[in-house]
Amino acid sequence: MIVQEQEAIDKAVEAITGDMGALWITLAAILVFFMQAGFTLLEIGFTRSKNTGNIIMKNVMDLAVGSVMFWALGYGIMYGSDLVGGGFFRSSPSDQGYFFFSADDWYNLFFQTVFCATAATIVSGAIAGRTKFSTYLIFSAILTTIIYPISGSWYWPFDDDAWLNTAGFVDFAGSSVVHAVGGAAALVAAILVGPRIGKYVDGKAQAIPGHNMAFGALGVFILWLGWFGFNGGSQLAWGGDDTIAATSVIINTNLAAAIGAIGALFFTWARYGKADISMTLNGALAGLVGITAGCGAVSAWGALAIGLICGIIVVVSIEFIDKKLKIDDPVGAISVHGVCGFIGTVLIGLFALDGGLLYGGGAKLLWVQTYGSLSYILWAALASFIVLFILKKTIGLRVSEKEEVEGLDLHEHGVEAYPEHISQDK
Questions:
Q1: N or C: which end of the chain has fewer CB within 10 A?
Q2: What is the mean pLDDT of each run of 10 residues along the chain (426 residues)?
């Protein structure tokens, strides 16, 4: 009798723990969903007012198109049970509910959907102000349906069929799986679309200031908040040891963001003689992106180190890409997400408590982290190039000079986001 009562108690506790975990994942997904507002405000603030409506439309459609396509196909490619092409991606029979998703773990679908939308929207900022809306929609759909899910299947199913998981690769919440993929796609897109008119004069980069730094700052605060769901929710459970682990992840995330902002602030202060606002904001984001891979694998001191390194590197990277490579990225998306996504992933090889070089683990994890992250970057860059090159040769990537000068709001959407008397771009 006592044994039966204990079994009933254990089952009840297990059921409650499972429900709490599902609730935590759902709430975390809602926070990540809200990050789309942060990306929108950040991109609006860092660019010209005449393209505000276009940016809103792109970010809305990233989420809308991504939600439908990931439900219909992307989730099955990423999490299906059957391997295709020797493990290159996955699929599942329709009766298992992965194509046109109809299984019962809806909270996992929602959580993964908002991650997928995040990868897509990274591209938007890097090509703001000069890209055809129709072309962007097509690319966003392909990225969320095929490009992101294929590479995601290499690690996140957390089984022996995921080759990077088997290799010992660590990317807790997606510095490479999400951010480096989005950053690599953004790099290719920015190169193929070309710089904004007036960005480079006689070979020298010209500043094109954003029109609303308040929007940019608010966007960063929203992203910072949403990242607690992005990283904390990736514990994928709540209760007991999982509660301790998830809250530790949240603290590591916050510390990295904070020190990233501080590092960028003082680095630019020493470099420019002024406390640069946009670089400081990007420093916070760099710390967030950098710690996303290792937030569950490093100590608080490791989080501070990763955040500080990324906060400084993002400044150097933005300058190098803008002035040396002459690639026009209005919001710094390539540096924040691509460069810091890679750096943050690799730094786990140094700072991981289990296997890190500085903790006696040797160089094995450092090597795995390096080639694992490079695999994501190379895949995203190659796949994006093929898609965008085809689009460029068919329907075109870029709007006309007249449309770019007068603004995408007017020509792509037939309306201006601001009344004429407060527009700064006339």
A1: N
A2: 75 83 96 98 97 97 97 94 87 78 91 96 97 98 97 92 95 98 98 97 94 97 98 95 97 98 98 96 98 98 98 98 97 98 98 97 97 98 98 97 96 86 50
